[in-house]
Amino acid sequence: MLSYSGYAVDMTEKKLPDWYLRKLSKAGKIGGKRSLKTMTPEERTARAKKAAAASAKVRAKKARKPQ
User: Fold this and answer.
1) Which CA distances in Å does 39 have to 24, 36, 44, 56, 59?
2) Which residues pair with 4 in a beta bridge?
3) Is pLDDT above 90 for 52?
4) Looking at beta carbons, which pairs linking 12-21 to residues 24 or more positions away fall under 8 Å?
5) Domain-by-domain residue ranges, the chain?
6) Full-prediction pTM beyond 0.85?
7) Which of 18, 27, 35, 67 is the most exposed place for a label (fewest CB within 10 A)?
């Protein structure tokens, strides 16, 4: 069981309930706006660089992988 805002979700099913997915999609949008308010420009830059490096690493790994 997984709890989100006091709701229990049975994780034995392969698909999450629609209401749960809607709540999760809103949570990510709120987090970005909150980061904008609470983080300094330098912290946001560092976070963006880290994310870009991780993305580049994945792309390079996929490019090396023989198809």
Assistant:
1) 22, 6, 6, 24, 28
2) 7
3) yes
4) none
5) 2-64
6) no
7) 67
